Amino acid sequence: MPQFILNRNQQSNGDREVHNLSTGCSYMPEPQNQEDLGFHISCSSAVSEAKRQYPGRRINGCYYCCNSCHTS
What we know:
Low-confidence stretches: none
Structural class: alpha+beta
Strand order of the largest sheet: 3-1-2-4
């Protein structure tokens, strides 16, 4: 089961992105800007967990490593 993180830095559009640690994504935030979301079956579960933890934040999947959870 892959491990996911949430980028603590807000993107230019206001979203905070969920990344899959196992992919080696080129857009992975620096370790000090990663918040652990734990292990999940899919990015949709990780995005749901991030939204549960931070209901006031806009959460999105990374276009590159969580594309099925990315919204424009």
